[in-house]
From TrEMBL:
GO terms for cellular component: membrane. It comes from Hermetia illucens. Pfam families: ASC. It is a multi-pass membrane protein. Keywords: Ion channel, Ion transport, Membrane, Sodium, Sodium channel, Sodium transport, Transmembrane, Transmembrane helix, Transport. InterPro entries: ENaC (IPR001873). This is Uncharacterized protein. It is found in: Membrane.
């Protein structure tokens, strides 16, 4: 029973590593790769995992020391506010009742101002 479980687990692990998208793991189970190349790939994979753990722990220590970082930029005139390449929005993002109410009020205000306007009131509002 133990041999069968061990063999099944190894076959599952082999298929998992062979199908993964992590570069380097496929080379560890490939039968056509030389043993020295497998050692190199295993060293690279271990170094990548160690680097990931080190960076994650370092960032976590930074977060624990100062959880909130506030920085103010004084050169606001040279800000470059680039827009994101893609924006995700949920499907029904507009409340049609509120939109209709707002549009009716806005259009009604515009029509009333336009219809009751005279040349003198326009000149007074637009101060040149």
């Amino acid at each position: 029973m133990t041999r069968k479980v061990s063999r099944t687990f190894r076959r599952y692990l082999h298929n998992l590593v062979n199908a993964t998208g992590i570069h380097g793991l496929k080379h560890l189970v490939n039968a056509r790769v030389h043993i020295l190349e497998k050692f190199v790939w295993s060293g690279l994979v271990i170094a990548a995992i160690a680097g990931t753990i080190f960076t994650s722990l370092n960032q976590f220590k930074r977060y624990k020391a100062r959880p909130t970082v506030i920085s103010l930029e004084r050169d606001y005139r040279s800000w470059n506010g680039t827009l994101p390449a893609a924006t995700l929005c949920y499907h029904d993002h507009l409340d049609s009742y509120k939109a209709d109410k707002f549009i009716q009020e806005y259009v009604l205000d515009f029509i009333l101002a336009f219809s009751s306007g005279t040349f003198d009131s326009i000149v007074v509002r637009v101060s040149w």
